[in-house]
Specification:
The structure holds 2 protein chains of 2 kinds.
Chain A lengths: L22 H12 L9 H4 L2 H5 L3 H9 L3 H7 L6 H29 L1 H24 L3 H21 L2 H7 L4 H30 L8 H22 L8 E2 L19 H4 L3 H21 L2 H8 L6 H29 L1 H24 L3 H30 L4 H8 L1 H23 L9 H20 L27 E2 L2
Parallel strand pairs in A: 1-2
Chain B lengths: L1 H8 L2 H37 L5
Helix pairs in contact in B: 1-2
The chains are: A mainly alpha, B mainly alpha.
Chain lengths: 489, 53
C-alpha cells in the first residue's frame, strides 16, 4: 500500500553521514514501552475488586437469589477475578511474546525494523484498548485476548525489532548496543509502575473500573505515540557499511563466525539449543528470586523488613535488573560472551546458596547484595544473548534466530512460577517453617545454573557445514578484503 | 539534504553544519528517552531508600 510505503525497508537505509547514535534511542523508545509488561502486577489488586466496587457484591446476589431472580443474579453479579486468575494475563503475554518473536523473526529480517516496530505499536497499544473494554465489561476472555494475546504479540515484535539493527550499526560493540536497548525493557517497568498508579488515582471514581479502564486507554495512547518516535527514527545501515576506524577481525574471539548462518540452519546446530537451555535456566532461576523477593525478605527478617520496605526492595531489584542488562552486555564485549555466561553460571550458584545463609545469619546486607547481583545477572543474560548469537551465527538473520531463541523465555515464564509454586507447596505440606521455606528453591535454582555452566562450556564454533558460504559477515570476508563505505562513529 | 551536500561538494561549512545538526538531533533523541527513564528510576529509588533507613 502506497500509504504505508514509509515503512518499507528501502526507505530507511541511512544516508551517508547519518549518526548511528540516533538508533539506540529509537530502540530504547520501543523497549521502554513494552517493558511495561513487568509492571502489570500493579493492576492485580484493582482488578480483583471490580465487581465489589461496582456495587454488585455477593449480598446483592443473595438478595436476587432470595427473590428467585436466578437469571438476574447470574447476569448482575459475576465473581471477582482472583490473583491467580489475573496472573494468567501476564503469563499469556510472555508466551505470546516468545511465539510471535519466533514466528515473525524471519519476516522482520525481510521487511526491516520500521515495519516491525509499527506492527508492534499497533498490537501493543491495541492490546491495551481491547483489554480496557474487557475490564469495563468485566469480560476476562477479552482481557486475555487484548493484553495477553494482542499485547503479547506486540511485545514479541517490539522486543526483537531493534536488536539486529543495533548489532549491524555497532559491529565494534554489539553487546553494549543490544544492552542499551534491552536495558529499556527493564527500565520500562520502573516508569510504568508509578505512572499507572498515578493514572489510576486520576481516573478513580470516574466510573466503576477503579481507574483501570481509563489507565489502560491512556497508556495505550501514550505508548503508541512514544513508539512512533522509534518507528520514525530508526534507520538501517547501507550494505557494507562499517563505522569509522573499525577494523574487523581485530581482537576477535575464536567463537566469532566469519560466515552468516541462516535461521533454518541455526535451528539445527547444537549451539542454538545450548544457548536455548542457558537462557531457560538463567530466566527460571531469576524468576525464583523475583517472584519470592517480597515474602522472602519479610519471612527472613520478621520485624525488620515490613511490607512497605519489601516493596522498596523489589524496586531495588528492578534497578539491578535494568543496570545489569547494560553493564554485563557491555562487559561481554571485552571478555567475550562465553566467559560472561560462565561468570553468571559459576558466581550465580554461590549467591543462590548464600541467600538462605543470609537469613540464618540475620544479615540484611548480605541478603540484599546477593539478590542484587543475581538480578544483574538475570538481566545480563537477556541482554548478552543477542551478541552471543551474532558471534556464532553472524548478523544476516540474527533477528530471526533471536526470535526463535526467545521461546526459552516463554518456557521459563511458565516453568519458573510453576516450579516455585510446587516447591513452596511441598515445603508447606512437610511443615517447614516460613523462614526455611525458600532454601530448597534456592538450592534447586543453583543446580539449574550449574546445568547452564555445562552448556556454556560445550559451546564451540559453528561447524562449517552450517555456514552460508556465499554470505560472509560484513567486513569479515575471509578470502578478500572489501572496501566498505564508512561513516561517523 | 544537508548530508548529501556535504558528500557531494565536500564544503567545510556545509559539513560542519550537518555535523552540528546531527549532534543536536542525537542530544534531543537521548533526552526524549532518558528523561522518563530518569523519572522512573528516581521514583523506584525513593521507594528503595526505606530499605536502608
Amino acid at each position: 500500500m502506497a500509504l504505508l510505503s514509509f515503512l518499507d525497508r528501502e526507505r530507511i537505509i541511512a544516508k551517508p553521514g547519518f549518526n548511528r547514535w540516533l538508533v539506540p534511542p529509537a530502540a530504547l523508545a520501543i523497549h521502554l514501552c513494552i517493558g511495561q509488561a513487568y509492571a502489570f502486577s500493579v493492576f492485580n489488586n484493582p482488578l480483583t475488586k471490580l465487581v465489589a466496587v461496582k456495587g454488585l457484591a455477593p449480598t446483592d446476589t443473595l438478595k436476587l437469589l432470595s427473590q428467585s431472580k436466578l437469571v438476574d443474579a447470574l447476569h448482575a453479579a459475576p465473581t471477582d477475578w482472583s490473583i491467580p486468575t489475573i496472573g494468567w494475563v501476564f503469563s499469556l503475554a510472555i508466551v505470546c511474546l516468545g511465539l510471535s518473536a519466533a514466528t515473525f523473526g524471519a519476516w522482520l529480517d525481510r521487511v526491516g525494523p520500521r515495519k516491525a516496530m509499527f506492527a508492534s505499536a499497533i498490537c501493543f497499544s491495541g492490546g491495551f484498548f481491547v483489554g480496557a473494554v474487557g475490564v469495563y465489561y468485566h469480560l476476562f476472555w477479552l482481557l486475555l485476548l487484548g493484553y495477553g494475546v494482542l499485547g503479547g504479540i506486540g511485545l514479541g515484535l517490539g522486543y526483537i525489532s531493534p536488536v539486529s539493527t543495533l548489532i549491524k550499526w555497532f559491529p565494534d560493540k554489539p553487546g553494549m548496543a543490544t544492552g542499551l536497548a534491552i536495558m529499556g525493557f527493564g527500565g520500562g517497568a520502573m516508569i510504568a509502575a508509578p505512572l499507572s498508579v498515578k493514572l489510576m488515582e486520576v481516573f478513580h471514581g470516574i466510573h466503576h473500573g477503579l481507574g483501570v479502564t481509563g489507565t489502560f486507554l491512556t497508556l495505550g495512547a501514550i505508548y503508541f505515540v512514544y513508539m512512533m518516535f522509534g518507528v520514525f527514527t530508526v534507520r538501517i545501515p547501507a550494505a557494507g557499511w562499517l563505522p569509522e576506524g573499525f577494523v574487523p577481525g581485530t581482537h576477535q574471539h575464536k567463537l566469532v563466525s566469519s560466515y552468516n548462518v541462516s535461521v533454518n540452519n541455526a535451528w539445527k546446530t547444537p549451539q542454538f539449543w545450548l544457548l536455548w537451555v542457558m537462557l531457560l535456566v538463567n530466566v527460571t532461576a531469576g524468576i525464583g528470586v523475583l517472584s519470592q523477593a517480597s515474602p522472602m525478605s519479610q519471612d527472613f527478617f520478621p520485624g525488620r523488613v515490613t511490607a512497605v520496605i519489601a516493596g522498596g526492595f523489589v524496586g531495588l531489584l528492578s534497578i539491578a535488573n535494568m543496570s545489569g542488562r547494560f553493564l554485563w552486555s557491555s562487559f561481554s564485549d571485552l571478555i567475550g560472551r562465553k566467559v560472561t555466561y560462565l561468570v553468571f553460571f559459576t558466581l550465580g550458584p554461590l549467591l543462590y546458596i548464600a541467600i538462605p545463609a543470609s537469613g540464618r545469619a540475620q544479615s540484611v546486607a548480605l541478603f540484599v547484595v546477593c539478590c542484587f547481583l543475581i538480578l544483574t545477572m538475570y538481566g545480563g543474560g537477556f541482554a548478552t544473548i543477542p551478541a552471543y548469537l551474532r558471534d556464532l551465527f553472524g548478523t544476516r538473520q540474527v533477528g530471526a534466530i533471536h526470535g526463535r531463541l526467545l521461546t526459552a523465555w516463554s518456557t521459563a515464564g511458565v516453568l519458573g512460577p510453576a516450579l516455585v509454586s510446587y516447591i513452596g507447596q511441598y515445603q508447606t505440606s512437610h511443615g517447614v517453617p516460613n523462614a526455611h521455606q525458600y532454601d530448597l528453591t534456592m538450592y534447586i535454582m543453583a543446580g539449574l545454573l550449574v546445568i547452564g555452566a555445562i552448556c556454556d562450556l560445550m559451546v564451540k564454533p559453528v561447524d562449517a557445514r552450517f555456514h552460508d558460504v556465499d554470505s560472509p559477515v560484513t567486513g569479515m570476508m575471509p578470502t578478500q578484503t572489501p572496501t566498505p563505505e564508512r561513516s561517523r562513529g | 539534504m544537508a548530508d548529501d551536500v556535504r558528500f557531494q561538494s565536500g564544503g567545510t561549512s556545509a559539513s560542519s553544519a550537518a555535523e552540528n545538526s546531527s549532534k543536536v538531533l542525537v542530544v534531543l533523541a537521548w533526552t526524549f528517552v532518558l528523561v522518563p527513564l530518569a523519572w522512573g528510576f528516581t521514583q523506584t529509588l525513593m521507594k528503595a531508600v526505606a530499605l536502608f533507613q
